[in-house]
Amino acid sequence: MIRYYLIIALQGYCLYHIYKNRKPYYWYFLVFFIPVVGPIIYFITNIYNKRDAEKIQGEITAIINPTKKIRDLEKALEFSDSYTNRIALADAHVENGDMPNAIVNYKHTLQDTDQNELYARQQMVLCYFQIEDYQGVLEQAEKIVNTSEFKGSKQQFCYGLALKELGRIDDAEIQLKQIDRPYSNYHERLELAKFYIENNRTSEGKELLEEISSEAAHMTKPNRRIYRSTIIEVERILKSL
User: Fold this and answer.
1) Residue 3: its pLDDT value, please?
2) Residue 50 has what pLDDT?
3) What angle do CA 190, 25, 53 make, to 5 degrees?
4) Which of 158, 83, 84 is nearest to 123 (CA)?
5) Within 13 Å of residue 211, how many CA atoms lie on the same side as its CB?
6) CB 176: neighbour CB atoms within 10 A?
7) What mean pLDDT comes out for the span 140-159?
8) Residues 124, 129, 133, 138: is their CA dihedral positive or negative?
9) Measuring CA to CA, which residue among 121, 122, 102, 101 is closest to residue 110?
10) Which residue of 61, 189, 193, 216 has the lowest C-beta tally within 10 Å?
């Protein structure tokens, strides 16, 4: 049984590595359809070296037993309640889908005034958005709204959607329009198009959807796979207009 989970974990890790590093699409077929040999070949030829072996082992262990990483980080925090250890624990909670505990730990790091608070607040914007605490999103976003890192970021997108949910439509549009960049941010631009349509600006929404549809026609095959659900949604809405 343990061997089975190791094989699944290795296969999952290789597929993630292929996607993250934008490897040629044929690797997907090799790893997915030849479950044991394929991942081993990919691992040896594309991932493994002695310096990374310990790191990879830890990542595979985290896939099999995600709570072990958190327990280990909690022990490290008990030994040394440092900014680095606290951030690492908060990040691990995010990876594990535990946003409330992640927020608690990110907030704790703000007590260390010698550290830059930007990263913790960026993460809290995303965490609050995940649990649909839109007031929490606003509270954190407005602390970093004037930073260069905020403009065009995922945090700005979440801020815009949170403003929309709280009924601040004009403010929401200002933020969401910052994400409208050609040949990128497809999901975010889809949400902006929906925003226009929901607010009786159908022509603007349709125009943006048509732009995304046109750009999708020139995507590479890997990108079409990545954005497949977004493209399908774009075409579905266009047909309904």
Assistant:
1) 59
2) 43
3) 105
4) 158
5) 18
6) 22
7) 95
8) positive
9) 121
10) 61
d(CA 191, CA 171): 15
Two tokens at 129?
Answer: 């958005």
Q: Which two tokens stand for residue 149?
A: 């890192």
pLDDT in tens, 58-117: 565 555 556 778 888 888 888 888 999 999 999 999 988 899 999 999 999 999 888 899
Sorting pLDDT into bands at 50, 70 and 90, what band is 48? low
Spatial neighbors of 222 by CB under 8 A, at least 6 apart, are: 22, 25
Q: Which residue has the higher pLDDT, 209 or 46?
A: 209
Q: Which residue stretches of the chain are H helix? A: 2-20, 26-33, 37-42, 50-64, 66-79, 83-95, 99-109, 118-130, 134-144, 154-165, 169-177, 186-198, 202-216, 221-226, 228-240
Give the whole-number percent of the chain exceeding pLDDT 90: 56
b/e per residue, 146-168, with b = 16+ CB within 10 A?
A: eeeebebbebbbbbbbbbbeeeb
In the block, tokens 């200002």 appear at: 174
Q: Is there a contact between 189 and 179 (Cβ–Cβ < 8 Å)?
A: yes
**129 DSSP 8-state letter:** H
In 3D space, the residue among 207, 222, 213, 205 whose CA is nearest the CA of residue 186 turns out to be 213
Task: Say if residue 188's pLDDT is above 50.
Answer: yes
Check pLDDT > 50 for residue 51.
no
Distances (CA, A) of 7 to 50, 79, 241: 20, 34, 47
CA-nearest of 162, 150, 210 to 182 is 210
Average pLDDT in the chain: 86
